[in-house]
């Protein structure tokens, strides 16, 4: 039985898990959906004599039989690469068909997923994630999502210090290079900085929480791994992703109420893996600010090996 890893060729996070599985002599098949349809073919059948799809994915070097898949690690798959001579309309149609056919076929595999892409998609929407976190017992800062500049100014003006965190609802912004999206970091916003451009799309404004430090909490099934993140520069104090070189890390315990809330959130979304970001104030109160069902974890040195082992343990399970 094989662990299927769906990701791009350049994914050091997946590399860690694959190396661990190889060390355990667990069969692994790494596959990038971007190879479909030009360098990857599929053929699968279902009918009166079958309750699930049977067939194979055939690459340039190896074949994968669907019945052999014991679990799927859905990491960071690429986008379908279509024939370069296709016109714009034909390419749009072919992409939609590839998504319905190839992605639909793989998504139907009745095995353990870490995580299933449909569950990732739902948990990755901030309005859904924050509401689910609040219902799960986790504290969420006061948050406004709006395209009304007046509402935004009124919300920020009512906050302590009249300052909010502006955070993109997605993670990246398109750039001139399709393969190199531009990250959008958290910024501080005051009422007089909010102008009419807010009306052009949805924006998220969140209460500014004065933090003593942040915590990245990574959950793998029932196992929780947490580390304090201490900022060493002004940029990282606003958004730690803006200056990784200035950060220091310290593994920490997870309070019981936070652990209960995290597990409730995972159950609500049906997740087996999630990365969560918390702000911890001077009084030790944890505020959840981000839910990332496919977040990175290798950047915390002391937790890299434990999380790798936990993911390999989970993927090695023989059944879902």
Mind telling me the CATH class of the largest domain? Alpha Beta
Distance between the termini: 13 Å
Percentage of β-strand residues: 25-35%
Arithmetic mean of pLDDT = 92
Reading the helices and strands in chain order gives EHEEEEEHEHHEHEEEEEEEHEHEEH
Number of helices: 8
Any idea what the radius of gyration is? 22 Å
Looking across the biggest beta sheet, what order are the strands in?
16-15-14-17-18
CATH architecture name of the largest domain? 2-Layer Sandwich
- Total number of strands: 18
Number of domains: 2
This entry's quaternary arrangement is single chain
By CATH, the superfamily of the largest domain comes out as ATP-grasp fold, B domain
Query: What is the CATH topology of the largest domain?
Result: D-amino Acid Aminotransferase, Chain A, domain 1
State the helical fraction: 25-40%
Polypeptide structure, described:
By secondary structure, this protein is an alpha+beta fold. The protein folds into 2 domains: 2-110, Rossmann fold (3-Layer(aba) Sandwich), CATH 3.40.50; 122-297, D-amino Acid Aminotransferase, Chain A, domain 1 (2-Layer Sandwich), CATH 3.30.470. The chain contains 8 helices and 18 strands. The strands form 5 sheets. It has a 5-stranded antiparallel beta sheet, with helices on both faces. β10 (172-173) and β11 (182-183) form a beta hairpin. The longest helix has 20 residues, at 88-107. The protein is globular, with a radius of gyration of 22 Å. The two termini are 13 Å apart.
